[in-house]
């Protein structure tokens, strides 16, 4: 199959490695010639160009750009594609992308490979990044079955665990397990910074070990990532944060009123429930 | 030196290994004979007994019991000790222990080795558990300088990083970096359980990966641990939780009012600030 990848960063480059290894011909696109050259040298693509007409012969295009420019990119691709080309994206929010992108291209089907690492760019790309990780496809009622029929086996061939759900359910689910943790964790760091006794703040920094380290990890990550979540999944992030605040309120009430039995039950429930998420 | 260890679990047993290796004579005490026998067999103590008179000849006693029984244990020890014996404990909160314990024994000095692992009991004890970890000593204005003069070098010999501060500053600092993370992290699990659309909850469980795993780890830990923190460090846990709730309120406000620049600044501050805690 001839596969196009527009945007040759961590995700785009990693898709390229896998698809080439599977015997496909991979055509890459990037804004800068230097990125195209690097992708060719490192073997992530067969050919690459800064010109969109490289995608004129492909059966599928993976748009691997930042969330904000997915729909405009699909619009820009339109004049270059054959009418039966399937277009997908890799953005970590879906409702904010898929309806707008589908207006630009009827054979659009949103996707979200839930794989990543701290490093970014084509240099960080690697084979088998998606193996044994969730890869979510988010059809709407308007999505053509052909798009699913072509894309699903392709994603499956990456050895990813494929899930299919609506963009809305995707965004609600990732709000809980990906976006809310970033907010919860960042607020922990923020709260610690508000200790105004400088000796205590210093002691806290000196005493912090694995518990603080793990709980604060995602909140101390790339600021752009947290901003993107809040901005493009705003409704669901607000919904989960509001539910979370109610839990904090409840906890404060239990501790202030010394309801130790209820607190013990809650903590035991958390202990039990976590396994289902691992 | 002749050193007593009362309570032969993870911490008591690990102290025993280190002190014996350093050439001291270690006398252990436990409520059950089977624990005494195990501690002798595995080499954590030279001798052990269920009878407190084993501590009649020691220069220092480490009380390694649960927090709730430290002060009563010091009271029980009183008839058996020489008048110049220094007594310390290993509890993870200090104000709730040290004043009461010091009333029972003038040469009491509170301590908190900030080392641990998930496993408990004498079987989990190991040499060098305290090496390169914080070990906090918490004198009050009434604490005798002799107690510090004897205990500090002993703790130092464990290769621990020794900190000296008041019980109040200790409890405030650990509230931020140890107790608050447990509450924050547990409330994340609790909030996710309140998603009432069962399909979404299932998807969330399936999509959860390292970010959720790390952020929820300490909140999904032993329920007794969280309960103990809330109960015995209640004032400071309430203070940190209240400050934390204000941060969550602020975040909700920023997102609902779409103050993206301020949110970006906050997230960037978190990213920067975390390093000081690692």
Helical/strand content category of chain A: alpha/beta
The residue fraction in helices of chain A comes out at 40-55%
Overall number of strands of chain A: 8
- For this entry, what is the oligomeric state of its chains? homodimer
Largest pleated sheet of chain A: 8 strands, mixed
Tell me the number of helical segments of chain A per DSSP (H or I, 4 or more residues long).
11
Sequence of secondary-structure elements of chain A: EHEHEEHEHEEHEHHHHHH
User: What overall form of chain A do the CA principal axes indicate?
Assistant: elongated
Topology:
Two copies of one chain form a homodimer.
Chain A: E1 2-6, H1 10-21, E2 25-29, H2 33-41, E3 47-49, E4 60-63, H3 70-77, E5 86-89, H4 95-104, E6 108-113, E7 134-138, H5 145-156, E8 161-164, H6 167-193, H7 198-207, H8 210-216, H9 223-232, H10 234-256, H11 260-273
Parallel strand pairs in A: 1-2, 1-4, 2-3, 4-5, 5-6, 7-8
Antiparallel strand pairs in A: 6-7
Helix pairs in contact in A: 3-4, 6-10, 9-10
Task: Explain what this protein looks like in three dimensions.
The structure is a homodimer of 278-residue chains. With 278 residues, the first copy, chain A, is α/β, with parallel strands linked by helices. Chain A has eleven helices and eight strands. Chain A has an eight-stranded mixed beta sheet, with helices on both faces. In chain A, helix 6 crosses helix 10 and helix 9 packs across helix 10. The longest helix of chain A is centred in the middle third of the chain and has 27 residues. The first copy, chain A, is elongated, with a radius of gyration of 22 Å. The relative contact order of chain A is 0.10. At the A-B interface, helix 6, helix 7, helix 8, helix 9 and helix 10 of A face helix 6, helix 7, helix 8, helix 9 and helix 10 of B.
